[in-house]
Amino acid sequence: MEEIIQTREISVGVVGLGLMGSSIVAALLLAGHPVKAIAPLPTELADAPDRILSQIRHADEADLLAQAPDAYIAQLTVSADYGVLADCRLVLECVTEKIAIKQIVYQKIAAVVSSETVIASNTSAIPISMLQQLVPNPERFLGIHWAEPAYMTRFMEITCGTQTSLERANWAFELAHYWQKEPTLLRKDIRGFVTNRLMYAIYREGLHLVEKGDATLEDVDKAFRYDAGSWITMMGIFRRMDYTGLQDYPEIFRRIFPLLSNSDEVPDLMQQLVDRQLRGTQSAQGLYDYTEEEAKEWDKAFAVFNKDIYQLAARYPFRTDQRIG
Amino acid sequence: MEEIIQTREISVGVVGLGLMGSSIVAALLLAGHPVKAIAPLPTELADAPDRILSQIRHADEADLLAQAPDAYIAQLTVSADYGVLADCRLVLECVTEKIAIKQIVYQKIAAVVSSETVIASNTSAIPISMLQQLVPNPERFLGIHWAEPAYMTRFMEITCGTQTSLERANWAFELAHYWQKEPTLLRKDIRGFVTNRLMYAIYREGLHLVEKGDATLEDVDKAFRYDAGSWITMMGIFRRMDYTGLQDYPEIFRRIFPLLSNSDEVPDLMQQLVDRQLRGTQSAQGLYDYTEEEAKEWDKAFAVFNKDIYQLAARYPFRTDQRIG
Description:
The structure is a homodimer. Chain A is an alpha/beta fold. Chain A folds into 2 domains: about 10-185, Rossmann fold (3-Layer(aba) Sandwich); about 195-315, N-(1-d-carboxylethyl)-l-norvaline Dehydrogenase, domain 2 (Orthogonal Bundle), CATH 1.10.1040. Chain A has 12 helices and 8 strands. The first copy, chain A, has helices at about 20-30, 40-60, 70-75, 100-110, 130, 165-180, 195-210, 215-225, 230-245, 250-255, 270-275, 290-315, and strands at about 10-15, 35-40, 75-80, 90-95, 120, 140-145, 155-160, 180-185. In chain A, helix 1 (about 20-30) packs across helix 2. Chains A and B meet through strand 7, strand 8, helix 7, helix 8 and helix 9 of A and strand 7, strand 8, helix 7, helix 8 and helix 9 of B.
């Protein structure tokens, strides 16, 4: 007979402690879980504890903590040994987007956990139904897609593969609410997920305008930052349509859809930057150019902004689950 | 010899006092201009003064006023008579998106103002180069596209038509900075403008996912609200790419671009709502369903949110005008 335990007592495993993995560990600790964090890379093993601590302090500055930071850290185990995952009911995989590497990771996880343990990937690029085939007992596998920083964003996309048990998906959906997320549950395995599809539709059009010389990077960023940026945190795109009265849209669709880029190609502009190994603010060169100080300033400013926008969004908790039947 | 006057002493005309026109009048009054507001419709003549006053009070609540509301209102003339525009150096047209109506309006404006007076349209749907042909002395005609509410958003898109004098466009660009906007100046007449192109790329993809049954309206709104909504007010889309390190994008472009909707068609879902004359929160029925109270609640909440996000955005004034040459 299974012992009844509190949700916060559920041990959760995280495999892969890069930027995103560490941030997910912080989110799970803040939710009260004991967290077993596996660092497959030696650099991650060395860096992760400090990074996780500084993330918890960041959350503390935003008044998100009920206890002192140490109380959360006490629940953390960091190890290179998959054996510590043994008692986890959920293990989140956050390693690089390479299928061969993920396959090895899934085998190592499955070798130590119960066949009931839910295994989830944070992938935003590879179909869940494909990854699922690499996991023993595939019905317990699904996608749980977080936004960075995981401990201070409400976004969460839960995606079923074709073999995922709906019961497990619902369990994860409930758990996401316990984590104070605003999850979406996609019962079908949509290639590209929802948020990526929307974002890449913008990226395609924005890069198209820049490559044609119709607008500069700055124009596109300004337009989006000061237009969509003035309402999207509260509304989403369809609520905005309702708010603006709906009637004008079909006429504008008719005029604008035929003008939009339908390209399948990777824009040269992007390919060249990536070929040159530029990493944006992380290397102080990318689409924009930065001094070392400017690059750091952006990173710091975003940490502060994130706290601000998280708190602002919390004041507008409107439910979006009412619609015409 | 022309008298030298202060920028704030420039009289500005606004023709069309619907929701957007009234809001633009409020923005111009707050900038200190004498404003000549023309109400072509009797209902607008009756409703506009109260609406403008309540918008100025709204701005007052957000601490945007240097003087008492009455001091701004004292600078306002509302009339059905185009003759009051005579001394304006700039006239903004904000009437309905019908070319035949705009043509009549331009003739009435041109009949009373100097041939030097800049005439601008707030259109977001009709090419500036086309409208320009309807205006005597077309070199003084351009697009000035505002975001709602005009007195509390920083977005502004200034668009040249093929015949627009660059000198006039630069004058408008300077003036926009005086209005505390973050304007973009598009020297080419891009059909669909920048912000519309980006937004309609999202609308196309979002409606496509909903019509295919891959996601619900709520899923799309949640994903966008809690993902993009957690950074876009600060970053814009290209700055975000730099911030996230650039390297993964080409691979994801390659996977996702071929999946995106390339449709030219107006989605049935939208056409049906519009055929049924639904107007979203304005009629308490649209993509979502509302009770009368809920619809009002959204309107009220957005007025408050707008103040919050305007103030938040003001704390992150990073310039976006640095880039690789």
